[in-house]
């Protein structure tokens, strides 16, 4: 933040392959401690774990979590997510 960052891109954990409940706890703990808005980064090809649409929707309600960079390559996820989450939550692909 002091170096000019506007937000933090936070990737799903790798190696440990947490459950969806674990991902919810992980990102919530980061968001609770953050002083910058967060953009979640879902890149299952690199981390071995996929952040589900349902978990993303739950996380989108946290005031510090402002978006998702989705690198799954599945563009069919965007439309249902957008309908549930709304326009204020940023989706990047």
Present the secondary structure layout.
Blueprint: E1 8-11, H1 20-33, E2 38-42, H2 44-47, H3 53-59, E3 65-70, H4 78-85, E4 90-92
Parallel strand pairs: 1-2, 2-3, 3-4
Helix pairs in contact: 1-3
Shape by Cα distribution? globular
Strand-pairing-aware structural class:
alpha/beta
Instruction: Determine the fraction of residues in helical runs and give it as a percent range.
Output: 25-40%
Report strand order across the widest sheet.
1-2-3-4
The SSE order reads EHEHHEHE
Distance between the termini: 25 Å
Number of helical elements: 4
What is the alpha-carbon Rg in Å? Answer: 13 Å
Number of strands: 4
Question: How would you describe the overall organization of this protein?
Answer:
With 93 residues, the chain is of the alpha/beta class. Helices cover 35% and strands 19% of the residues. The chain is built from four helices and four strands. A four-stranded parallel β-sheet has the order 1-2-3-4, with no helix packed on it. α1 (20-33) packs parallel to α3 (53-59). It is globular and about 35 Å long. The two termini are 25 Å apart. The model has no long low-confidence stretch (mean pLDDT 93).
